Amino acid sequence: MSNKIIDDTDETMIDAEYIPNNSVSKEQTEAATEMLVENDNEEETIIKPKFRPATINELNNGISQLRKISVPSHRFKPLKKDWKKIYEPLVKHLNLQVRMNTRSNRVELRTSKYTKDSGSLQKAADFVKAFMMGFDVEDAIAILRVDDLYIDSFDIKDVKKLEGDHLSRAIGRIAGKNGKVKFAIENASKTRIVLADSSIHILGSFQNIKIARDSVVSLILGSPPGKVHANLKIINARMKQRF
């Protein structure tokens, strides 16, 4: 008796020209047609589809995004004073909706139908937060105009546990007489520094923040301002040679 091998495998026949009407829309069919491959002299030329940039309303399904930034009690008066300088770039350039909620002490930001850039809301929130930390409007507005700017915040007690007069002397070494040491660090590292009690906020690029943070940490650990200033001159000379 001969053994017969029975193949029960079902073969599925797929018609490449068949497209169900209920699963593919007309727009998708037209987009697929533009992606056809044209054969000329046995060379394949791929035609890529061209899509317009998606708007922020399409990315969020037409839902407005909202950010709320709390206003500290000591920054409420400066906020009222410089309110015009704050909301004008947000409304005119970033096309956002801005309001100051005096009941909840918050600045509220919201996207509108005129907002084009998806990162505008985050930039605006970083700009307002920088102002709340104590930076001037002219310095904080650089976040809106320049890319790759960040804010690094840390506490003096995170570097070294200091209390009482020791903490006051550390803050005095960082600031210097009439703020000369702080200004020297800012000019050498091309950053902006805010001393808020025992908290320190540094605004600048990643590399420049590192230079300023190392100088501040050295002052907290007890290095004399003259030595830190001499190190900054060396670093500044090296940076000029690179450029």
Question: Can you characterise this structure?
Answer:
It is found in: Nucleus, Nucleolus. This protein has 243 residues and is an alpha+beta fold. The chain folds into 2 domains: 56-145, Ribosomal Protein S8, Chain: A, domain 1, CATH 3.30.1370.10; 150-242, Ribosomal Protein S8, Chain: A, domain 1 (2-Layer Sandwich), CATH 3.30.1370. 45% of the residues lie in helices and 17% in strands. A hairpin with a 2-residue loop joins strand 1 and strand 2. The protein is globular.
Termini separation comes to 90 Å
Radius of gyration: 30 Å
- Categorize the overall geometry: globular
Q: Tell me the CATH superfamily of the largest domain.
A: K Homology domain, type 1
Number of helices: 12
Write the CATH architecture name of the largest domain: 2-Layer Sandwich
The CATH topology of the largest domain turns out to be: Ribosomal Protein S8, Chain: A, domain 1
List keywords for this structure.
243 residues; alpha+beta; Ribosomal Protein S8, Chain: A, domain 1; three-stranded antiparallel sheet; globular; disordered N terminus
List the helices and strands and how they pair.
Layout: H1 26-33, E1 37-40, E2 43-46, H2 56-59, E3 66-70, H3 76-81, H4 83-93, E4 96-101, E5 106-111, H5 120-133, H6 137-140, H7 142-145, E6 150-155, H8 156-159, H9 165-175, H10 180-189, E7 192-196, E8 199-204, H11 206-220, H12 225-242
Antiparallel strand pairs: 1-2, 3-5, 4-5, 6-8, 7-8
Helix pairs in contact: 10-11, 10-12, 11-12
Protein name: Pre-rRNA-processing protein PNO1
Main location: nucleus
Family: Belongs to the PNO1 family.
